[in-house]
UniProtKB/TrEMBL annotation, chain A:
<feature type="transmembrane region" description="Helical">
    <location>
        <begin position="177"/>
        <end position="197"/>
    </location>
</feature>
<feature type="transmembrane region" description="Helical">
    <location>
        <begin position="134"/>
        <end position="157"/>
    </location>
</feature>
<keyword id="KW-1003">Cell membrane</keyword>
<feature type="transmembrane region" description="Helical">
    <location>
        <begin position="235"/>
        <end position="261"/>
    </location>
</feature>
<dbReference type="GO" id="GO:0055085">
    <property type="term" value="P:transmembrane transport"/>
</dbReference>
<feature type="transmembrane region" description="Helical">
    <location>
        <begin position="281"/>
        <end position="307"/>
    </location>
</feature>
<keyword id="KW-0813">Transport</keyword>
<dbReference type="Pfam" id="PF19300">
    <property type="entry name" value="BPD_transp_1_N"/>
</dbReference>
<dbReference type="InterPro" id="IPR000515">
    <property type="entry name" value="MetI-like"/>
</dbReference>
UniProtKB/TrEMBL annotation, chain B:
<dbReference type="InterPro" id="IPR039424">
    <property type="entry name" value="SBP_5"/>
</dbReference>
<dbReference type="GO" id="GO:0043190">
    <property type="term" value="C:ATP-binding cassette (ABC) transporter complex"/>
</dbReference>
<feature type="domain" description="Solute-binding protein family 5">
    <location>
        <begin position="77"/>
        <end position="450"/>
    </location>
</feature>
<dbReference type="GO" id="GO:0015833">
    <property type="term" value="P:peptide transport"/>
</dbReference>
<dbReference type="GO" id="GO:1904680">
    <property type="term" value="F:peptide transmembrane transporter activity"/>
</dbReference>
<dbReference type="InterPro" id="IPR006311">
    <property type="entry name" value="TAT_signal"/>
</dbReference>
<feature type="signal peptide">
    <location>
        <begin position="1"/>
        <end position="30"/>
    </location>
</feature>
<keyword id="KW-0732">Signal</keyword>
<dbReference type="InterPro" id="IPR000914">
    <property type="entry name" value="SBP_5_dom"/>
</dbReference>
């Protein structure tokens, strides 16, 4: 197992390198000049050229790439062109809102989607099943921002129960932190609940037809025990895979939700950096997302050995 | 018994949790009465207002720095940090004395040496500053409170330039900061203005915090425009950039915010009629949509083609398409802004009235052979999005072949600095917007600069216009300046550098308990109280 983990971790290095080359080239080929943006609307050519030199953007691309790569190997992701702060610092400050939102969303999703999917499978063909699947289709069809605005209108503007926007750090109080995350995590979880409930239903349905379920029932076990101990557990591998991937997608894909609820997370940082052509920030954030994706995939693979003892690496 | 006790315990736990949430929530929602929560027009990224011309950096400058002079509400120059100004009989020596009580945020007194270094840094960067410095033989601090300009010829530009209201504003900084080369950003943010930048509380992209500068000594005159007493009436101002303007409005309605700097016109119906919200305008002179030519390439290398557009276009179509609400726009042909000190309609008769016959006549005279005109269309700045399609429509109506290319603003910004042929990545025209404070006289207006390679993108090249700009800089009386401004408009008609497409205003939305927003042309926060 340990050697497997080591092999997988080593395998991430070429993946990350490829991502680094790709993102570096993509940014340089995209139209837009950070120097012109920094200089402002009324700067002349000489001023823009001066800034370009200061940022090192006048050097040949291979030189820029090697400088960036060299610095990165020393743990230096560079300085934001705009904020004049270390990119590492910027990312660290934005990590908490994104992780908080993602974790809360995934907890909410799992708590709702797995029981709903299991119930739908257990009551296959019933009104309950159709209702859950109907909700699932609705959840897929509604864009997150629409759900967000509807929730805000009802709970923040009409009822005044929850704040409209913003984020409070957990260190400043759990209550305020949670209150500000309730609406965004509900808005964001709808699509994942829809997705994972469907996935759970399919997996559990497959398992419910297996011989060992019939055996368990024949042994006189309660339906709850049959469902939870035999059906859901054996259906868990695909469900956990989807939950893991959903989490990875969440971390990199909460842009719209962060924007709607004004949460200062990594998603907003990425959008701001892209619009401003802040190359060092975009490069570092995308590398971070890639690394998280690879890491979560690894964790999913490892979790298989726990869920299914037959799987060995 | 046990069940009852357990239920009680659970109820207690739930109640405690709810209470803790409630308490935290109220603690979170409650704001100190004197904290003004503001949504600025964009995020503050660059903290050096001399290094960039971005308006948000200018506004940051007004928070923490002060100026030697400022324009009042009527556009007159008034001393700000300066107490007295004297000019020698020959007009070649100007002496300024700083007023008493000025100090930097670190407690050190403001000295003339600080101001001299600040003027020199600004004068090496800003176009109007460069022009002013071309008249200066020497600039020295003759004692702690006296600044002395020795000029090589008479000019009325010194105080006018030092009162420049918009980017780059000549903000005063401590000498050690102002000695930073203008090619580098400053790294210390200490001013002598009414607010102190709270660097520790700054969360890039999220929150910018300014605290009241308790030791600030305001002028005794009442606040007027950017001049007069700058009294901070709130203890703290927090800038909270929110990208989603709809959400900003929601938060304002819910009382989570106090002030939205620029409310998009399409969101006005959401706040109109809300008794908790009021709409104000800190920039009554407004902004001007501006069509910019690139004179390097055909067909706009020919002045007749540019003149043709002066006749083909009309302001009403652009304003209707983009703003829509007549309360927030007006046609204004005056080159230096309507309601501004140098407003004049000289030479403007018959222009911008979609006189297609006259336009076609001029196009025919120019020898235009149907080559495509590459019009850059910005799609991501809501306030510019609808303009290029209107221009395309009007240009096609007079027989021009328009190739409108859509792109995001930052791509446009990068492309407009390219002098290549349009087919090789260059361009022929684009549309932008200026605030009135940037175009209030011939020297300040960057698009009028016709110094060829040294001019802004578009690179107009005309000796007559440059001669008139020089003459304006040398003029020492308002009467002389007004006469020159009229001549400038005449010269511009012969050699158009750009076209104004109409004046528009944008509302600022505040909670109804916020008072004292001044008509300054820039979002400033002194004089504003929260009751």
């Amino acid at each position: 197992m340990l050697s497997y983990l080591l092999r997988r971790l080593i395998a991430t290095i070429p993946v990350m390198l490829l991502v680094a080359v790709f993102v570096f080239m993509l940014l340089r080929l995209t139209p837009g000049d950070p120097a012109a943006i920094i200089a402002g609307d009324y700067a002349n050519d000489a001023q823009i050229a001066e800034i370009r030199t200061k940022l090192g953007l006048d050097k040949p691309l291979p030189v820029q790439f090697m400088v960036w790569l060299g610095n990165m190997f020393q743990g230096d992701f560079g300085e934001s062109f705009f904020y004049k702060k270390q990119v590492g610092e910027l990312i660290a400050a934005r990590l908490e809102p994104t992780l908080s939102l993602s974790l809360l969303t995934i907890i909410l999703t799992v708590c709702i989607a797995v029981p709903l999917g299991t119930l739908a499978a257990y009551r296959q063909g019933s009104w309950l099943d159709r209702g859950i699947m109907g909700f699932s289709v609705l959840g897929f069809s509604l864009p997150v921002f629409v759900i967000g605005y509807m929730l805000i209108y009802l709970f923040s503007i009409k009822l005044g129960w929850l704040p409209v926007q913003g984020y409070q750090r957990i260190s400043d109080g759990v209550g305020g932190w949670l209150l500000r995350l309730i609406l965004p995590s509900i808005a964001l979880s709808v699509i994942f609940v829809a997705f994972i409930a469907r996935m759970t239903r399919t997996s559990v349905l497959e398992v419910l037809g297996e011989d060992y379920i019939r055996t368990a029932r024949a042994k006189g076990q309660t339906e709850t025990r049959v469902l939870m101990r035999h059906a859901v557990r054996n259906a868990a591998v695909p469900i956990v895979t989807v939950i893991g991937l959903s989490f990875a997608i969440l971390i990199g894909g909460v842009v719209v939700t962060e924007s709607v609820f004004n949460l200062p997370g990594l998603g907003l940082l990425t959008v701001e950096a892209v619009l401003a052509r802040d190359f060092p920030t975009i490069q570092a954030v995308i590398l971070l997302f890639s690394f998280i994706y690879v890491l979560i995939n690894l964790l999913i693979d490892v979790s298989y050995t726990v869920l299914d003892p037959r799987i060995r690496y | 018994m046990f069940k009852t006790a357990r239920r009680g315990l659970i109820k207690g736990a739930v109640a405690a949790m709810v209470m803790s949430l409630g308490l935290s929530a109220s603690g979170t929602f409650a704001q100190a009465e004197t904290t003004l929560k503001v949504v600025p027009h964009s995020d503050l990224k660059i903290l050096d207002p001399i290094w960039t011309t971005a308006y948000i950096s200018r506004n940051h400058g007004y928070m923490i720095y002060d100026t030697l002079f400022a324009l009042d509400e009527s556009g007159n120059i008034q001393p700000q940090m300066v107490d007295t100004v004297t000019t020698s009989d020959d007009g070649l020596t100007i002496t300024m004395t700083l007023r008493d009580g000025l100090s930097w945020h670190d407690g050190a007194p403001v000295t003339a040496a600080d101001c001299v270094a600040s003027i020199k840094r600004w004068g090496s960067k800003d176009a109007m500053g460069q022009k002013m410095m071309s008249f200066v033989d020497s600039l020295e601090a003759t004692d702690d409170k006296t600044i002395t300009f020795k000029l090589n010829s008479q000019t009325g530009l010194v105080t006018l330039a030092l009162a420049k209201p918009s980017s780059n504003v000549p903000f005063m900084m401590p000498e050690r900061v102002a000695n930073t080369p203008s090619s580098e950003q400053i790294s210390e943010f200490i001013g002598s203005g009414p607010f102190v930048f709270n660097q520790e509380a700054w969360e890039p992209g999220t929150k910018i915090v300014y605290d009241k500068f308790a030791a600030y000594v305001p002028r005794s005159e009442p606040a007027s425009g950017l001049a007069g007493g700058k009294i901070a009436k709130v203890d703290r101002v927090e800038w909270l950039p929110i990208r989603d303007q709809q959400q900003a409005v929601n938060a304002l309605k819910a009382g989570e915010l106090d002030y939205i700097e620029g409310l998009p016109h399409d969101l006005l119906p959401l706040v109109e009629g809300d008794e908790n919200i009021k709409l104000v305008d800190f920039n009554p002179a407004g902004n001007q949509f501006t069509f910019r030519f690139n004179v390097l390439h055909p067909p706009f290398d020919n002045p007749k083609m540019r003149q043709a557009l002066l006749y083909a276009l009309n302001q009403e179509d652009f304003l209707q398409a983009q703003i829509g609400n007549a309360d927030y726009y007006k046609a204004c042909k005056a080159m230096f802004g309507c309601g501004m000190p140098f407003e004049t309609m000289a030479h403007m008769d018959g222009l911008l009235e979609s006189n297609f016959d006259k336009a076609r006549e001029l196009i025919a005279e120019s020898g235009y052979n149907g080559e495509p005109i590459l019009l850059m269309h910005s799609t991501d700045l809501a306030v510019l999005t609808n303009l290029a399609p209107v221009a395309k429509d009007l240009m096609e109506a007079v027989g021009l072949n328009v190739d409108m290319q859509s792109m995001d603003w930052q791509t446009l910004v990068a492309r407009r600095s390219k002098k290549d042929l349009p087919a090789d990545g260059g361009w022929n025209a684009f549309i932008t917007s200026w605030t009135a404070g940037d175009l209030f006289n011939p020297v300040a207006m960057a698009f009028l600069n016709s110094s060829c390679d040294k001019a802004l993108f578009g690179w107009p090249c005309d000796e007559k216009i440059e001669g008139l700009r020089d003459a304006f800089a040398r003029a020492t009386t308002k009467e002389e300046q007004l006469k020159i401004v009229e001549d400038v408009q005449g010269a511009w008609l012969e050699y158009p550098t750009h076209i104004h497409l109409g004046q528009w205003n944008q509302a600022t939305a505040t909670r109804s308990n916020v008072d004292g927003v001044l008509p300054t042309g820039a979002a400033v926060f002194w004089n504003i109280s929260k009751n």
